[in-house]
Amino acid sequence: MAISLTMPALSPTMETGTLAKWLVNEGDVVESGTVLAEIETDKATMELESIDDGTVGKLFVADGAEAIPVGQLIAVILEDGEDASVIDNLELPTDANIVLPSTSSSLIVDEPVSKTAPSEVISLVPTTESEPVINSNNRILASPLAKRIAQQNGYDISKISGSGPRGRIIKRDVENYSNVINLTEKTTTIDPDGDASFDIIKLSNMRKTIAKRLTESKQNVPHFYLSVDIELDNLLLARKELNSLSDEYKISVNDFVIKSCAAALIKVPEANVQYCGDVMHQFKRADISVAVAIEGGLITPIIRGADKKGLRQISEEVKELAIKAHQGKLAPEEYEGGTFSISNMGMMGVKQFDAVINSPQAAILAVGAGEQRPIVKNGELSIATVMTVTLSCDHRVIDGAVGAAYLAAVKTFLEQPSAMLL
Amino acid sequence: MSNQKFDIVVLGSGPGGYVAAIRSAQLGFKTAIVERAELGGICLNWGCIPTKALLRSAEVFHNMKNASEYGLSANQPGFDLEKVVARSRGIAAQLSGGIKHLMKKNKITVIEGNGVLVSPGKLSVEKDGKKILIDATDIILSTGARAKELPHLKPDGDMIWNYRHALVPKKMPKKMLVIGSGAIGIEFASFYNELGADVTVIEMMDRVLPVEDEEISAFAAKSFNSQGIKILTSASVTNLDKKQTSVVCTVEHKGGKSEKIEVDVVIVAIGIDGNVENIGLEVNKIRVERGHVVTDEWGHTGVKSVHAIGDLTGPPWLAHKASHEGVILVEKIARDKGNKDIKDLHPINKGNIPGCTYCRPQVASVGLTEKAAISAGHNVKVGRFPFIGNGKAIAMGEAEGMVKTVFDAQTGELLGAHMIGAEVTEMIQGYTISKTLETTETELMHTVFPHPTMSEMMHEAVLDAFDKTLHM
């Protein structure tokens, strides 16, 4: 059956997009991963990839077409053996057969930073092989009440993710959706005499949770911070080698960071702990929470047992979880728990920062951008790719010496990745 | 000797605990259950089940007394209280035996004795002065609840009864005061009144069955009055003065007027307290508020690997709520340990838990009362249908009752359903499924109800909310 491509929703608030440029022509053979077009939103330009193999049957909009509503048909890809006549019979679908990840960062965003490897680190979200979710079944599972409330409010129910049994959309989901899209409407501007005017913006539930949990952490957990510079040249070499072996995966620097943090937690188990009143818990597995920035906040999906997983598996899981995070489809077990967190702001050009501990965990690693820096080795000046990381520790259960030992282990694994093979 | 080790140990074998234990064993956990008294807890032995047995005797007796209405004759119907009680006890014993069988079938270790949480992962169980220690990866507290007691209303089992005494009467009281008109008080009032006692019910709130919809309360009060039960609302008992063979109760009405009522038996049914004492909550810093253990929506106490469910954790104090919480909690524990087969797990939605009272007429409800719906900000549409409009109800000789529905006017959400009359406790489940599936009035209207049944009234009450009722 012909595959319909529609304007993807690149963020929860996106209503229309501009088709900046087609990168394929009608009749071109495309395969999964071929970049089809560039799409512009008010925030960024993103590349739209094909997820199927086939031939471009028809392009329904021209280069530069503006204000294309999300969900509108923009192209049809024909599968093997189909000819263009099927297009004439095609009903213009109201909901997309293909749902693309819903935020910018899960598509390739021009990759302006792709030349310096460490920045990819950092894209916690897939950089190339973004895997759109195929809505193979056009039936949308929703309760009658959810359907009615969506209809009364003019919401497209296909854009709402369901939290009921088997992903069924229930009343609560529609109400949550409504909270998100009403966010901007809930802004009130106050214009007092003399003083600066300001907007009153209602906090989303996620923002409230972030505010509450991080305040609790910063007030109740005695933080201290340890920073160290890490040379990445060996790692970049290893990564290049691994990625040249196959096209089936693409390991990022961040995948190495996750793996190293996990391996170091096993090597220094005193750092894999949690404060629990009269006792502390020392974990036997490294479950790594990875901070992902999403529309309106952030969430920390977990790579469970990352110490026992290979780089490829970690890489695949991170991609999958990041896509789900952006779509708001993470199940609670995918983000609740974790024994250690990583927050990576390298892609935003941040050199170094101190992260707030993701309580009840006892430590978080703040990862800065990798960049070429002059270094002095054996009395000689040379150039290396260096990244600064900072570990925030809960002093109630992790003392300075333990934190330092842990950080040294992380540094060893990242500077000599082959040590992780031991 | 080393301690016995289990994956999950459940403390208390009521409908929350034993169901949690079964689910735990089904999911492959090595499971034990600790019980200080009878398997099945209060529900099976001293609550839900034996009261239903007594009330069934009362119902049959009522029908015998009214046999002539059906063209039948039953000359001088009577009862033998000892046998009525023996039947009730026999049924409780039979079901408790059934739990024993279920435990055995699921290979659940039953440990008799008083269990105390020593620390997370460790329980001590004491029986006859001997103490053993048990290790458990996870511990589920389900010690239930008991009747609330006040110093001036302390049951003695002689003339002042709690529910336990009221279940095993040795003689039939002539005059009785029931303090509290919740489900427990009203069921006993109904039973003793049916068997001929002169019953007065006293309620602090301004209506009987105060958690029910106001219209249902009013309907119930009228019906109880017509059966001869006296009802005093907005009143409380300030003193019980025990005489040789009677109790003089000082009843204070709102506004200060007081009166004295002399009865031979008082039943105290003024509420429920969680069994939070002597199970090791304090030393383990488990939070207790208003006599109940505080948990999150899954049953976690905040102390790692210690969980709590059922009456111990607060209202609604209902067996079916406890069982459901037990299953959800155990599945959550399994999922947290990586069981991939556990899908679609959701915390219980307390708004969709039905409640039933087995007095005559029966009362059943789910969701918001009309008043609660309005104060929650809903514009409501209300439907009503009386039993007198239903063919089956009339044929059954049960024409007293009504069904009431409360919908959100804008969305058509079924916010609540309230029923009073014969067999409504068996029917409420229809509306409960509707609420769980989030149906609107449309699906309920399109549902075909079998004729002739009393359930047709449920259909009519939906139609009536939208001015489409057919048989009125």
Write out key terms for the chains shown.
heterodimer, A: 422 residues, alpha+beta, OB fold (Dihydrolipoamide Acetyltransferase, E2P), Chloramphenicol Acetyltransferase, 3 domains, seven-stranded mixed β-sheet, four-stranded antiparallel β-sheet, 26% helix, 27% strand, globular, B: 472 residues, alpha/beta, FAD/NAD(P)-binding domain, Enolase-like, domain 1, 13 helices, 24 strands, 32% helix, 26% strand
Describe the structure.
The complex is a heterodimer of chains A (422) and B (472). Chain A is an alpha+beta fold and 422 residues long. Helix content of chain A is 26%, strand content 27%. Chain A is built from 10 helices and 23 strands. In chain A, strands 13, 16, 19, 20, 21, 22 and 23 form a 7-stranded mixed beta sheet that branches. In chain A, strands 1-8-6-3 form a 4-stranded antiparallel beta sheet, with no helix packed on it. Chain B folds into 3 domains: 4-146 and 273-336, 3-Layer(bba) Sandwich (FAD/NAD(P)-binding domain); 151-270, FAD/NAD(P)-binding domain (3-Layer(bba) Sandwich); 361-465, Enolase-like, domain 1 (2-Layer Sandwich), CATH 3.30.390.30. In chain B, 32% of the residues lie in helices and 26% in strands. In chain B, the strands form 6 sheets. In chain B, strands 1, 2, 3, 4, 5, 6 and 19 form a 7-stranded mixed beta sheet that branches. In chain B, 47% of the residues are buried. Chain A binds chain B through residues 143-146, 148-149, 152, 163-166, 170-171, 276-279, 281, 304, 333, 337, and chain B through 120, 285, 304, 335-336, 338, 343-344, 346, 410-413, 437-440, 442-443.
Output mean pLDDT of chain A: 81
What kind of oligomer do you see? heterodimer
Average pLDDT of chain B works out at: 96
CATH fold node name of the largest domain in chain A: Chloramphenicol Acetyltransferase
Give a nutshell description of this structure.
The complex is a heterodimer of chains A (422) and B (472). Chain A is built from 10 helices and 23 strands. By secondary structure, chain A is α+β, with helices and mostly antiparallel strands.
